[in-house]
Design a protein that fits this description.
Layout lengths: L10 E10 L3 E4 H5 L6 H8 L3 E4 L7 H15 L6 E7 L10 H9 L5 E5 L5 H14 L5 E9 L9 H4 L4 E11 L4 E9 L7 E2 L22 E2 L1 H23 L8 E4 L4 H9 L22 H11 L8 E8 L3 E8 L3
Parallel strand pairs: 4-5, 4-6, 11-12
Antiparallel strand pairs: 1-7, 2-3, 6-7, 8-13, 9-10, 12-13
Helix pairs in contact: 3-4, 7-8
Bound molecules: oxa(dethia)-CoA (UT7).
The site of oxa(dethia)-CoA has 22 residues, from helix 2, helix 6 and helix 7.
């Protein structure tokens, strides 16, 4: 008779990260020549100095493929090792095929199935939760999560309250089973679809009458009620961060790094005031990228990872909010 033994806990752990930004920099000063704004206004209200814009004629998926390649290289993952690719985006080049399918073909991950997950700025956190479930169930071993947003193609370049905050970019993570006590420990996620109309990107093939003549619909661009989203974001970021820590029986003091969605520096600072957190532990890198939507959190992770700021076993708290309206937080022990 064998003993009971210990059941090995498999969690989704990040094996490696990557990112890719387009080469063209669009500064606040350049925006001064495009809409009625100033560098001072933008920096004081958002903390943004510049953002990257994808060159005309270049498909957005190329950034996703580059970010994926870096994450695979850094994690020592071969294309044939991947069992699944999840792409997160609200600005795909195509409705079909999915961005994930395109990346699968380009990186040559012939054994992977692939799908997109649309959860706006919460996309990466939700994808991590999905990956964790599939790893725990034994359905998948190595999973590539790639987040890519090309806002410049859906933004209204005459709307000064919106075009100044968004940027283009991609980031990726290779995720696999962690059995050493690291990996995704806890998540807290939610959606309140009653407020979905506060951030919208209508399908450009539909007429305004098909989508209820909502604000922004007639132009088929990224539209938001910035003020309402701002108030929601400050409150929900603090709530979601607190809830995931409570679920895990942890405190802010236990965290080594807090990575908030970079939508607006004032939102991060407002949320921080509601959290009992050491500001030095809160990562902020919005100044050079603007809001990257679903690519924001993985981009920050890739920068921290490259900078050697995350060590094996570090306690990391991710927290995001966005269109939906949705929110999501995750507590993980760093796995690489
Ligand atoms: O991830 C996607 C989700 N979206 C967000 O996270 C966005 C959340 N919201 C925000 O980040 C902020 O609300 C904005 C950056 C969009 C706007 O900042 P704000 O401090 O909330 O400004 P406001 O909307 O209260 O506008 C104040 C004034 C207004 O003028 P009046 O009415 O007081 O005369 C605006 O017209 O600032 C004006 N304004 C600008 N002025 C110069 C708005 N945008 C600009 C601009 N330059 N770019």
């Amino acid at each position: 008779m064998g003993g009971w033994g210990l059941v090995e806990v498999r969690r989704a752990g990040i094996y490696g990260t990557g990112y890719s930004l387009p080469g063209k920099v669009l500064t606040n000063r350049e925006l001064e020549g495009m809409v009625d704004t100033t560098d001072e206004w933008i920096f004081q209200r958002t903390g943004i100095r510049e953002r990257r814009i994808l060159e005309k004629g270049r498909p957005g998926y190329e950034l996703a493929v580059e970010a994926a390649g870096m994450a695979m290289e850094r994690s020592g993952t071969l294309p044939g090792d991947l069992g699944l690719i999840i792409a997160t985006t609200i600005t795909p080049d195509y409705f079909a095929p999915s961005l994930a399918s395109i990346v699968q073909g380009k990186v040559g991950a012939g054994k992977a199935f692939a799908f997109d997950l649309g959860a706006a700025c919460c996309g990466f956190v939700y994808a991590l939760a999905v990956a964790d479930g599939l790893i725990k169930s034994g359905t998948c071993e190595k999973i590539l999560i790639v987040s890519c947003e090309i806002h410049s193609r859906v933004v209204d370049w005459t709307d000064r309250a919106t075009c100044i905050i968004l940027g283009d970019g991609a980031a990726a993570a290779v995720v696999g089973p962690a059995t050493d006590g690291t990996g995704l420990m806890e998540t807290y996620m939610g959606t309140d679809g009653r407020y979905g109309h506060l951030v919208t990107i209508p399908n450009g093939y539909l007429g305004a009458e098909d989508i209820g003549n909502r604000a922004g619909a007639e132009k088929r661009v990224f539209w938001q009620d910035g003020k309402e989203v701002y108030k929601f974001a400050v409150k929900v970021m603090a709530e979601a961060a607190g809830k995931v820590l409570d679920k895990a029986g942890m405190t802010y003091a236990d965290m080594d790094m807090v990575v908030p969605h970079q939508a607006n520096l004032r939102i991060i600072e407002g949320a921080m005031r509601r959290m009992d957190v050491d500001p030095d532990k809160v990562h902020r890198d919005i100044a050079t990228t603007g809001n990257l939507s679903s690519a924001s959190i993985p981009y920050s992770l890739s920068q921290l990872d490259r900078g050697g700021r995350l060590r094996l076993g570090d306690n990391v708290l991710l927290v995001g909010f966005g269109a939906g309206l949705s929110w999501g937080s995750a507590y993980m022990r760093w796995s690489c």
